[in-house]
From TrEMBL:
<feature type="transmembrane region" description="Helical">
    <location>
        <begin position="31"/>
        <end position="49"/>
    </location>
</feature>
<protein>
    <recommendedName>
        <fullName>Signal transduction histidine kinase subgroup 3 dimerisation and phosphoacceptor domain-containing protein</fullName>
    </recommendedName>
</protein>
<feature type="transmembrane region" description="Helical">
    <location>
        <begin position="54"/>
        <end position="71"/>
    </location>
</feature>
<keyword id="KW-0472">Membrane</keyword>
<keyword id="KW-0812">Transmembrane</keyword>
<keyword id="KW-1133">Transmembrane helix</keyword>
<feature type="transmembrane region" description="Helical">
    <location>
        <begin position="83"/>
        <end position="101"/>
    </location>
</feature>
<feature type="transmembrane region" description="Helical">
    <location>
        <begin position="7"/>
        <end position="25"/>
    </location>
</feature>
Amino acid sequence: MTTQHANSNLVMLISILAMCIVFAVDSHIPLGVAGGVPHIIPILISLWAKNIRFTLILAVLCSLFTVIAYFSSPSGGELWKVLFNRGIALLAIWSCALLTIKYFNELIRHAALEKELEKITVYRETISGVNHLVRNLQSNFLIINHSKNLKDDLGEEVIDALNQSSREVCEILDKLGDLDEVTPEVISKIAYSNVNESK
């Protein structure tokens, strides 16, 4: 069990305990008091669990306990005030739960963006490294061009083909290095653009 998972379980346990305490207190105070509103406390605690399903379950249980407490609490206050207080409590519970879930979704989206940005950074560093190696190779071709013996051994056609290939690879790497959107489709389109053009 990882530390993060253990911490999440601890937060869940504390949230459930807090919910039971609030219910116990709410069941023993007169109906005229808005005793159900403190049920938002366990939902706020669930923020640290980072578990949307758990927060939803907690909101349902807190709502259920708020209704049960209406029947189990000592009588007191006018009926319309009692019902109004219970309604406010339910509204507070679900407002808090929905805001918590929205916060979770924002965290997930932010984590996904960070992961994607990390992939793009690694991709660009890789392209930069490959580009450097290819340009070194191109420099070696230039040496061949200026060496009469090597030109005679390889032949003009082979040397021209090597130079053309190195230029095409450098052009492709330059395009790949300037990409704003990194997807397999875009990379494939650029990588094979010269092949398609030659056809």
